[in-house]
Amino acid sequence: MRIEQDLKLGFKDVMIRPKRSTLKSRSQVSLEREYTFLHSNMKWTGVPIMAANMDTVGTFEMAKKLAEKTLFTAVHKHYSVAEWTTFLNETSAELKNSIAVSTGTGKEDSKKLKEIFDLSEDLKFICIDVANGYSEHFVKFVKKTREQYPDKVIIAGNVVTGEMVEELLIAGADIIKVGIGPGSVCTTRVKTGVGYPQLSAIIECADAAHGLGGQIISDGGCAIPGDVAKAFGAGADFVMLGGMLAGHDESGGDVIEVKGEKFKRFYGMSSSTAMDKHAGGVAEYRASEGKTVQVPYRGPVENTLQDILGGIRSTCTYVGAGRLKELTKRTTFIRVAEQENTVYSK
Ligand code: 5GP
């Protein structure tokens, strides 16, 4: 047994220090980024915020809406090939450039992935998503997928430490998904005791990835726009959102009415709700179970997007970053005492 004494921080443990700025208004801030990916050599330009590959978030409807603002969607893996066929028939090349096809690492998963990629040459992103990105089997699957799809962009995860980011990048991934346990409907930390505070995970994994020319996605734990800004400030190239995009018209599922108030169901992809729905198909998705919650129904996702993008633009003006690209360089985090967090949501 060994204890690491270094302090590891989550989003709530810090705030961003304001800095002198020449920007007059948040409208002067550009949130677009351009990336060239390590192995595929593909270029991508857009606002690097992603809908999570959960079946109440990463839907086709969400992808259409998010792509209008150049945001990205990791489409969940439970659509059938027939559903993909219909969707792709009515989809522009531009939209196809804003989505990833998600997959697990089983034989059936590989077969289905190929069937989907055979439908359209314009599909460019593969998201290989497993419970535990530390397994040897996972690294082998990433290698094999890279051999099979040399010019596609491969996203792989989830991990939380630099050495594993490097191993996956060397194995052929372009972008590494970072986060174990911070998700709003995730119970990994409760069930297993395993995890890593998300802000520190981003800082350490971004450093490892950028050293090799790769990118990272911060996945999970953002509950308010300020958290998204902190994730970018810490060095995330992309930020993936589940709970913040749940509860909208585009999230799928029915609106439930309780005592006159409207809700939508939101659940972890390894919760019993998800397992019932997908007939055992997701049992291996996450190391431990997820929760099922009811989130307030929030109508079209458009308003929420305005709120998130407006918040990050405003962060940029507070620290004098004219472009999202400059945010990390201009970020100084200050550690805050716990009681400060009571005013956190103001
Ligand atoms: P959120 O933005 O809601 O805080 O986190 C979303 C992320 O939680 C997802 O992208 C995924 O990585 C993670 N997640 C989704 N479902 C589950 C689950 O059932 N169990 C666990 N451990 N994590 C989950």
Automatic annotation (TrEMBL):
NADP(+) binds at residues 108-131, 216-239. The active site is at C186. Belongs to the IMPDH/GMPR family. GuaC type 1 subfamily. It catalyses: IMP + NH4(+) + NADP(+) = GMP + NADPH + 2 H(+). InterPro entries: Aldolase_TIM, GMP_reductase, GMPR, IMP_DH/GMP_Rdtase_CS, IMP_DH_GMPRt. It comes from Zunongwangia profunda. It is an enzyme of class 1 (oxidoreductase). The keyword Oxidoreductase applies. The gene is guaC. This is GMP reductase. GO terms for molecular function: GMP reductase activity; metal ion binding. The keyword Lipoprotein does not apply. Keywords: Metal-binding, NADP, Oxidoreductase, Potassium. Catalyzes the irreversible NADPH-dependent deamination of GMP to IMP. It functions in the conversion of nucleobase, nucleoside and nucleotide derivatives of G to A nucleotides, and in maintaining the intracellular balance of A and G nucleotides. K(+) binds at G181, G183. It comes from the Bacteria. Homotetramer. Residues 9-338 form the IMP dehydrogenase/GMP reductase domain. Its EC number is 1.7.1.7. GO terms for cellular component: GMP reductase complex. GO terms for biological process: purine nucleotide metabolic process.
